[in-house]
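Reviewer comment 2.1 asked that we show a complete input and output for one of the modelled complexes. We chose the thiamine diphosphate case, as it is the one discussed in the main text.
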Amino acid sequence: WDPEETRFHHYAIVLATQVLHAVGYAMGVKLDGKVGTGDREKDLAVISYFGDGATAEGDVSEGLLFAAVNESPIVFFIQNNQWAISSHIDSQTKAPLYTRGEGFGVPGMRIDGNDVLACYAATRLHMDNARSGEGPFLLEALTYRIGAHTTSDDPSKYREDAEVDEWKAKDPIKRFEIFLRRQGIGDDFFEEVKVAGDDLAKKIRAETFALEDPPLGNIFNHVYTEQHPEIDKQRAWLEAYEARMGDHE
Ligand SMILES: Cc1ncc(C[n+]2csc(CCOP(=O)(O)OP(=O)(O)O)c2C)c(N)n1
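Response of the prediction step:
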């Protein structure tokens, strides 16, 4: 995975850390003189996506502050799906999330996160603004997590079916399909999209199952740039443990 080539940083499993990384990158972009030159090929902006739950992490506040005082070219995009596993949005914030940046000097706006075109238009506008040197902006896309958080989560334990049904009726994909049909787009197109989607899913599944397990030692590589005695100790422990387990197979 090459973040330079894809211009996409890999997924951050520790919530909200990606916000700090993105702000740091945006600060660097500005120091490199790649903001507000008027040359669209050259000017850059950064976008960082995170959930409503992640906003309760200090990292998000730090990111907003550093982006504001450095006038960094970044859009903070909050995907507010109203649930952080079993924690409801009411336990994450008192004020609406789109106002979260105000005290730091980062203006914000709420958009309908289930409206595909609204998300696209708002993202495009604020990325262009950031690129041209207008500083950071925060978008809160209001949406809903229809499914479970993970396969080990049972949402029926903490929320009502009626709430889920209400949001199912606002399904963004269905809504966009209705919009396109009203523009005169016919069945053929939707059939084509369905086949392409199913083929892609099949391909991803097949390629994922074909992946070989990476060497276990990889989890210790790149923790530090140089060899570290604590890491060496942990690596040796794991190798010995694995060797012992192997004997029992
Ligand atoms: C720092 C940290 N704390 C806790 C977790 C465990 N965890 C994983 S996902 C999650 C909820 C995330 O909710 P939200 O930010 O709203 O994102 P969503 O998954 O709903 O899109 C939690 C608490 C974690 N990954 N990182």
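The chain has two domains: 1-155, 218-249. We note this here for comparison with the apo prediction described in Section 3.2.
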